[in-house]
Design brief:
- It is a single chain.
- By secondary structure, this protein is of the alpha/beta class.
- Among the domains are: 118 residues, Nucleic acid-binding proteins (OB fold (Dihydrolipoamide Acetyltransferase, E2P), Beta Barrel); 178 residues, P-loop containing nucleotide triphosphate hydrolases (Rossmann fold), CATH 3.40.50.
- Helices cover 40% and strands 19% of the residues.
- The protein has 28 helices and 21 strands.
- The strands form 4 sheets. It has a 7-stranded parallel sheet, with helices on both faces. The chain has a 6-stranded parallel sheet with strand order 16-21-20-17-19-18, with helices on both faces. A 5-stranded mixed barrel has the order 2-3-4-6-5.
C-alpha cells in the first residue's frame, strides 16, 4: 500500500461500517484524513472543570464535572424509580436524571467524589436545568498523589459532536486512526517549513489530538493554519498565473470617441479615487490577457460610473460590454441611470441619437417577446454596444457580436456557472470586472477573491451628505417609534421622500426574510414585521394623507418598475419595501431610511440599506427600529452600525459574527468552512505571508513539478466542484 492511501483509507475499514456511517451522515467525515482533520474545538483540563453556570438551554453539551451526591427515588407508588445525580464544578451544580432499568450502571459508577465527562441536551425541569439520561464516560480515579497529579494535568480534547456521536466516542475513533498520521503527505515545501520553524504535518496532527502541554496545542495550530493558508493561496496564485497565459483582445482607449463625448457631458469631475481606479482598469483592458479585477467600495462611492466608463472605452475599441445584475429591480435601475447619464449617447442609430452613440439595451426574463427579440437582434448584430440584464443574459439564445467586457454587480449573489456561461460568449475570454458594494476586509479579499486584482474606492463624491444613524428601541420606548413617524412626515413636508424596509412581504409563504431570523427572534416568537401590514398601518395612522406605496419581490416586473418610476419622479412620498431596494437604487431626493425589525438583518445588509439615503445634497437619516432588549447581542450589532459609516469596519464586525463560510465554494457563509483552523480576521498576518510564499512558489514552478506533495494536497482541497469553481472564477 502506498503512503498516501493509508492516510486516505475509508473510515469503515478502520472503524467498522456502523460508526463510519454515523460519521459520514452527521459529521461529513469519510476518510482517515477527514477524521484527523476534525480537530478538537477546545480542551478540558481535568483540574479545571467546565462552568456549569453557563450552560445553554436546549443545546447538546459536553461537561467535565465531579459527582456531589447520588440518590435513588421511588415514584408512581413505588412502582417506578429514578436515579438523581448532582454534579458540580465549583461554578454551579447540575442535576442528572436516569430512569427505570437504565439506573443500575450509573448507580454503580457515578459515586460521590468520582469524575466523569457527561454529554446530553440541557432541559428545564421544576425551573432547574438538568440532563436527562446523559451519556457519560468515567475519567477514572487514582489514589496515589503522583497519579492524581498526572490525572489532573491531562488535557482532554473536546470534539464538535452531535447527538448520535458524543465527543469521547470521536476521541476513541481518533485513537484508532492516529497511527496513520505518520503517513500524512506534508504539503509545505521543506524550505518553507524549516525556514519558519514549523512542525511536520504528522507531528502537528499528533499534537493537536493528543497534546501533552498547551505549548503542543499552540505549535500544532500554527502549523495547521499555515497548511490551510498556503495551500489555498497556491490554488489562487495558480489561477492568477493561468489567467496571464490566456489570450484576450486588447481594448485600448480610442481618442474622440464615446468615452470622451460622455466625459464632456459630466457635470462634475471624478474623485481622485475614481481616477486612480479607472487608470488601473484601463491599463488592464489594454493588455492581451483577460482583466480579472474586483472593484469594491463604499456605498455611494461611484462604482457604477467607473464601470460605465470602462464599458464605453470597450465600445470605443470595437467591443461590446455586458453588465450582470442580481435582480430585475437592480437591472432596470442600472439601465435607467446609465441611459440618463449617457443621454443621446445611448441612442446610437436612432433619430436624435448622437453620431458616436451606441444602443444600451435591457434584457430580463420578464420582457415581452417583441422587445426581447429586438434586444437579441441588437446584440448579435453589434448594434447594441452595452447590455444590462439579469441571468436572462446567460441563456443559450443570447449571442454577442464581440463581447469584450463583463461587469458583474454584487458578485456574491451569482453562482459560478452563471458567470462562466456569460464569459464563454466572447470570441476570446472577455475582460472581467467584478463589483461589490459590501466592503471586504483586505484578508477576506485575499482569501475569497484572491484570484482577482483589487481596486478600492473609499472616497465619497463631493456633494454627498453625511447620514445620521440612530437605534429606535420600540419596545422600551414606544414614544421613540412615534417620533420616527413624525420625522418621516417632517422630511416629506420639506419636499423629501422616505423608505421603510421590512423583513417580510406579509403573506404565509416561505420567504428569505423569515429564514434570516436570529435565535433571539425565535425566543421572542413574534413573526417578522411585514411590508403589507406596515404600509396599511402607517398609511391609515401616523402617515395618513401621504402617498404610501409598496415594493416587493413577488410583484409583477412591470408593476415594480412602475412603482420605482413613480418614487424616482417624486410622486410617492413613502416607499415600504423589502430588501429589493438594498443595492443600486438611486433616488437622491430620499432622505430617510426606516428599517423595521432591524435586528433581523445582517450588518452589511443594514449598511447597504442605509446607503440608499444621503445621496443628494440634503442630509440623510437612518432609523434602526428594534424590539430587542438593550443587553442583547442583536442590539449591540445595531449600535455598532449606528456608530460608524465605515463599511470596512462594519464588514470586520459582520465577519467576526458570521464566520467566513466556505471560502472556496459558492456559499459566502453559513456552511461548514473549508478553513477548519484559519480565521481570516484573526490570522491576517499568516494569510499575507502565505500569499507571498505562494506567489514565489508558483512563479518558480507553475505546475508544481518539483513539489508533488503540495500537488497532492491541492488535489485534495480542490475536489471536483471546487476545481470547477476556480477554473470558472
Amino acid at each position: 500500500m502506498d503512503r498516501v492511501s493509508a492516510f486516505d483509507e475509508p473510515l469503515k475499514k478502520t472503524l467498522g461500517p456502523a460508526t463510519a456511517k454515523v460519521m459520514a451522515e452527521h459529521l461529513g467525515l469519510h476518510t482517515v484524513s477527514d477524521l484527523l482533520h476534525h480537530y478538537p474545538r477546545r480542551y478540558a483540563e481535568r483540574g479545571e472543570l467546565t462552568p456549569l453556570s453557563e450552560l445553554p438551554l436546549d443545546e447538546h453539551v459536553t461537561v467535565v464535572a465531579q459527582v456531589a451526591d447520588a440518590r435513588v427515588l421511588k415514584f408512581n407508588q413505588g412502582r417506578g424509580q429514578r436515579l438523581e445525580v448532582t454534579i458540580t464544578d465549583g461554578s454551579g451544580r447540575l442535576q442528572l436524571v436516569f430512569f427505570g432499568k437504565g439506573i443500575h450502571k450509573p448507580h454503580k459508577e457515578l459515586l460521590p467524589g468520582s469524575r466523569a465527562m457527561f454529554a446530553g441536551k440541557v432541559s428545564m425541569f421544576n425551573r432547574k436545568l438538568q440532563l436527562a439520561h446523559p451519556a457519560y464516560e468515567p475519567l477514572g480515579a487514582a489514589s496515589a498523589e503522583d497519579a492524581v497529579d498526572a490525572f489532573a494535568n491531562q488535557l482532554i480534547p473536546i470534539y464538535a459532536a452531535c447527538k448520535q456521536l458524543e465527543s469521547w466516542k470521536i476521541s476513541k475513533a481518533v485513537d484508532a486512526v492516529l497511527p496513520s498520521a505518520r503517513d500524512a503527505v506534508d504539503p509545505l515545501p521543506p524550505s518553507l517549513r524549516e525556514g519558519r520553524g514549523l512542525a511536520t504535518l504528522p507531528e502537528a496532527l499528533q499534537a493537536i489530538h493528543r497534546p501533552r502541554t498547551k505549548a503542543d496545542i499552540a505549535a500544532a495550530r500554527d502549523r495547521l493554519k499555515w497548511d490551510e493558508a498556503f495551500v489555498l493561496q497556491v490554488a489562487l496564485a495558480r489561477r492568477r498565473y493561468a489567467d496571464t497565459q490566456l489570450p484576450a483582445v486588447a481594448r485600448k482607449q480610442v481618442p474622440d470617441g464615446l468615452l470622451d463625448a460622455f466625459d464632456a457631458k459630466l457635470p462634475f469631475t471624478l474623485t481622485e479615487g475614481q481616477q486612480k481606479v479607472t487608470a488601473e482598469i484601463f491599463t488592464d483592458l489594454a493588455t492581451e490577457h483577460p482583466m480579472h479585477r474586483l472593484l469594491q467600495g463604499e456605498v455611494g462611492s461611484g462604482k457604477t460610473l467607473v464601470a460605465l466608463r470602462a464599458m464605453l472605452a470597450v465600445v470605443d475599441a470595437g467591443g461590446q460590454a455586458a453588465m450582470l445584475a442580481p435582480t430585475e429591480v437592480l437591472a432596470q435601475q442600472h439601465h435607467r441611470s446609465v441611459t440618463e447619464m449617457m443621454g443621446e449617447l445611448a441612442e446610437g442609430g436612432m433619430l436624435g441619437g448622437a453620431e458616436q452613440g451606441t444602443k444600451v439595451v435591457l434584457l430580463t426574463g420578464s420582457m415581452g417577446a417583441a422587445a426581447r427579440r429586438q434586444a437579441l437582434l441588437d446584440l448579435v448584430t453589434g448594434e447594441a454596444g452595452i447590455v444590462i440584464g439579469t441571468h436572462a443574459l446567460i441563456e443559450d439564445k443570447v449571442q454577442f457580436h464581440d463581447l469584450g467586457l463583463v461587469v458583474v454587480d454584487e458578485q456574491h449573489r451569482f453562482g459560478v456557472e452563471q458567470r462562466d456561461a456569460l464569459r464563454s460568449k466572447g470570441k476570446q475570454p472577455p475582460h472581467l470586472l467584478v463589483m461589490t458594494a459590501t466592503p471586504i476586509p483586505r484578508t477576506v479579499a485575499m482569501t475569497v477573491f484572491g484570484d482577482l486584482e483589487t481596486s478600492v474606492l473609499d472616497q465619497l463624491p463631493a456633494g454627498r451628505s453625511p447620514i445620521a444613524s440612530h437605534v429606535v428601541p420600540a419596545k422600551d420606548k414606544p414614544h421613540f417609534l412615534a417620533r420616527t413617524w413624525e420625522r418621516v412626515r417632517e422630511e416629506v413636508e420639506k419636499g423629501h421622500q422616505a423608505y421603510v424596509v421590512c423583513p417580510r412581504i406579509g403573506d404565509d409563504e416561505d420567504e428569505p426574510g423569515k429564514k434570516a431570523a436570529s435565535p433571539e427572534d425565535e425566543a421572542e416568537k413574534r413573526p417578522p414585521l411585514a411590508v403589507l401590514e406596515i404600509a396599511e398601518q402607517i398609511a391609515s395612522g401616523p402617515l395618513k394623507g401621504l402617498r404610501v406605496e409598496v415594493l416587493h419581490g413577488r410583484m409583477q416586473p412591470d408593476d415594480k418598475d412602475a412603482v420605482m418610476r413613480r418614487f424616482t419622479a417624486g410622486e410617492v412620498h413613502v416607499l415600504v419595501a423589502t430588501t429589493v431596494i438594498e443595492v443600486g437604487v438611486n433616488v437622491p431626493n430620499a432622505t430617510v431610511m426606516v428599517i423595521m425589525d432591524a435586528d433581523r438583518f445582517g450588518v452589511s445588509q443594514l449598511h447597504q440599506l442605509r446607503g440608499r439615503v444621503g445621496r443628494g445634497s440634503a442630509a440623510g437619516l437612518c432609523l434602526l427600529v428594534s424590539e430587542m432588549p438593550e443587553a442583547s447581542p442583536a442590539r449591540a450589532r445595531l449600535t455598532a452600525v449606528a456608530a460608524t459609516l465605515d463599511g470596512f469596519e462594519l464588514s470586520r464586525i459582520d465577519l467576526e459574527q458570521r464566520r467566513e463560510g466556505d471560502v472556496l465554494g459558492q456559499a459566502q457563509s453559513g456552511v461548514r468552512s473549508s478553513l477548519r483552523m484559519l480565521a481570516v480576521i484573526e490570522d491576517e498576518e499568516i494569510i499575507a505571508e502565505a500569499r507571498e510564499e505562494a506567489v514565489a512558489t508558483v512563479s518558480a514552478d507553475p505546475d508544481l513539478e518539483h513539489l508533488p506533495e503540495l500537488r497532492t494536497a491541492l488535489d485534495a482541497l480542490l475536489d471536483t466542484e471546487r476545481e470547477q469553481y476556480l477554473e470558472k472564477g
